[in-house]
Amino acid sequence: MARKNSRALWAEKIPMLRGRPPAAVTGRFAARAGDVSGAEKPASVKASAEPAALDSRFGTRQPYKGHVLGIDPSLRGTGLAVVEFAPGGGGEPALRASRTLRLGRELSMPECLGEIYKAVADYIEDWPIRHVVLEQTIYVQNFQTAQILGSARGAAIAAASVLGKSVFEYPPLRVKQAVAGFGRASKSQIAGMIHRLLTLPESLPSDESDAAAVALCHAYTWRG
To answer: How far apart are CA 84 and CA 64, in angstroms?
Structure first.
């Protein structure tokens, strides 16, 4: 007796996990793959112009809706970008505000952290921010750089937390994959994709582009 491959075994297993009899498997999977001619397509898999709003317990997702504040933290050049996502309304993601917080050398580190905190708080109070998003820190050159960057990140995260906003973090590789399609994209390539995805009249400065990229990554990978 021929053994079933792993795909066939899972095809039988999934309906049972969802409380359906195995007999339902053939029609459901054949309708999706187009393997059985004349098979009636179940109502649950009808084609739609809108992204599928499905059950997240089974690896599917709801389109993100709302404003995201993306942050590219740095002690003297923090990038901020507010991007709005409105699925169902026919609109593309839209950049609502962006800023690079430039802080001079005359300011001490504590003063810079205070300015970062205030800038993030101002954006959260000025816009109906749903989530705040940052890139994870994967690698830094030395301990002092890590300490400074960590302090800047902490100031931004603290502002979001105090104002009751959920904070999410994504590794740089994932951000690049979500925006540009490959994890080794350069800063200029990311800036170019942001320019196109948000249909901007001109490219954003580097820090603001990175902030917008992490906001887009969050919306593209969100499972709500």
So the answer is: 10
Buried b (16+ CB within 10 A) or exposed e, 93-108: bebbebbbbebeeeee
Residue 31 CA to residue 176 CA, distance in Å, equals 34
**Please, what sign has the CA dihedral across residues 63, 66, 67, 73?**
negative
Domains of the chain: 6-47 (no CATH), 66-221 (3.30.420.10)
Which residue among the candidates 72, 115, 208, 210 is catalytic per the annotation? 72
In one letter, which amino acid is 142? N
Catalytic residue among 115, 135, 208, 210: 135
The pLDDT tens digits of the residues spanning 141-185 come to 788 888 999 999 999 999 999 999 999 999 999 999 999 998 889
Q: Assign 72 to helix, strand or coil.
A: strand
Cα separation, 58 vs 26, in Å, equals 19
For the entire predicted model, the pTM comes to 0.72
Place of tokens 């993306």: 70
Catalytic-labelled residue, pool 40, 106, 125, 207: 207
